[in-house]
Amino acid sequence: ASFAPKGTSLLQHGTVDYYLYGEAETIFIQFCDLFLNNNSEFKKNFQEKYIICPPNENLNPLPIPDFTDYFDQKEKLWFFNNHSIVFESSRGCWHGSSKQCSFCGHQKEYMTYREKDREKTKTELETLIRIYKPEKVYSADFIMPKHLPTFFKDIKIIPEKTQLFYEVSPQLSYTELNTLKNNNITRIQSGLETFSDDLLVLLQKGTNSINNLRFLRDCESLSINIYWNFLHSIPEESPKHYEAIRNVLPHIYHLHPPFDVRPITITRYSPLYNQLQTREPTNLTYYDSFEYIF
Description:
Layout: H1 7-12, E1 19-22, H2 25-36, H3 41-45, E2 50-53, H4 68-74, E3 84-87, E4 90-91, E5 114-115, H5 118-132, E6 136-139, H6 148-154, E7 163-168, H7 174-182, E8 187-190, H8 197-203, H9 209-221, E9 225-227, E10 229-232, H10 239-248, E11 260-263, H11 271-274, H12 276-279, H13 290-293
Parallel strand pairs: 1-2, 3-6, 6-7, 7-8, 8-9, 10-11
Antiparallel strand pairs: 4-5
Helix pairs in contact: 6-7
C-alpha cells in the first residue's frame, strides 16, 4: 500500500500483483481474509488490480499497531540498538486543511484533518509503551493535534525514560511547550522556514517572523531541542528579504540553529508544483540522487 501513484507502473511491469493506494488498513484486512480463504467474494470485490482506498473518516476503530515481528527480528541484529516505535494520534493537517503550505506535497484528499479521541490516544500510547518499553516514540502525525498540550497537562502517561517526538505548530505558547516538556516531549520539529514575513506569506505558513523568534526563544528557555529548516531559493524571493534576515541574525546567535539550510523543494501535489505554469521558477533542477534512480 502507498500514497504515490506509482502503482500502475509497478503493475505493468509485473512487480506486484495488487496495489492498494491510500489508507488501506480496513480494506487490506478484508482483502487478506477473502484471498487467504479462497473466498468466492474475492474476485467480485477486487476486480481491479489497482485498489483505491479512501481516507478513514474515523480513526478510533483502527487497531493498535503490533510491533512484535519487528522487535523479534531487531533482536537478531547486534548492531541495531535503536529501541523505538512509531505512534499516531491524527491524520491530515489542521493548517493544511484550510491553507496548505506552498511546498507541502501531501495530497489534498488525504489532507482533511482527523484525530483520535482522548481516550483512544491515551489507551494506545499507554499500551505501546507498556508492551515494548521503547526509549523513543516517534509521532507519525503531520502536526500535533491542538488538544494534546491540554491532554498532556491533565494526565502524565510518558515514563521518565521514554522520549516522545512530535511535529508541532510554532503557534504553541510557552505554557503549552512547558507542558510538553513535563511529559518528556523534549525533541520537536516545527515549520519555521525563515524570518522574513514576506517569504512566510509566499510559503503560506500561517505564522510570522516575530512568532518564529518567540517560539525559538521559548524552546531555548525550556531546553527543548527543536529541528527546523531554513529555506531559500523560494519563488518570487528577492535580495531585500535576506537583507532583513541578515539584520536579525547577530541578535539570535544563542538560539537553536536550523537543522539544515537548503533550497526549497517543489514536490508533486504541492501548490508550488501546481502553479509551475504561472510562476515559472528559475534554476529548477532535480535531486542528485535521481541520477541513481532514473
